[in-house]
Amino acid sequence: MKYLHSAASIILVYAFSLTAMAQENGxxxxxxxxxxRADINTQIWATFTRxxxxxxxxxxxxxxxxxxxxxxxxxxxxxxxxxxxxxTGRMLExxxxxxSIGSDIQFRFNQRYHNDNSAYEAGIYRMSGTGRDGQPFVxxxxxxVVLKKHEDxxxxxxxxxxxxxxxxxxxxxxxxxxxxxxx
Length: 183
Prior knowledge:
Elements: H1 2-24, H2 30-53, H3 57-61, E1 64-72, E2 77-80, H4 81-98, E3 104-114, E4 118-130, E5 136-150, E6 153-163, H5 166-171, E7 174-176
Parallel strand pairs: 1-6
Antiparallel strand pairs: 1-2, 3-4, 3-7, 4-5, 5-6
């Protein structure tokens, strides 16, 4: 968790600067903010959910900005760019070759800040499905992402998550994902 808090502090500075820029630029009016959030929900979170459900590696890899930075604190790992994009694609392809059963992933947010071209979002996700052994699984991770517009669509520029638990999931305020609406 210490990595998540350190990185989160850095990201929060970025997120607050986004909020300040958005307020200065007047882009925080409700209709604009609602449209940006709807675009992010569709282009990032609904697509992310679908890619895991369908085990679609290509769809999933297209979520990421070419300059993605992926931090995995529990592995003391930082991956970037094509290295991470290809690795995550191979992971989904491997799962697809061993099982045609995808996973359900749902997101809940506790922070969402954005302007017209950049966003910071943090929360928790719940992933469930059936493992290779035929047994059901459920796990929870807290996440932080920085999103950036790239070629007129939202992409994930920075991604980090750490293990969490059901209690954190139950206490998260905003829901998006399968069977939970698009708020």
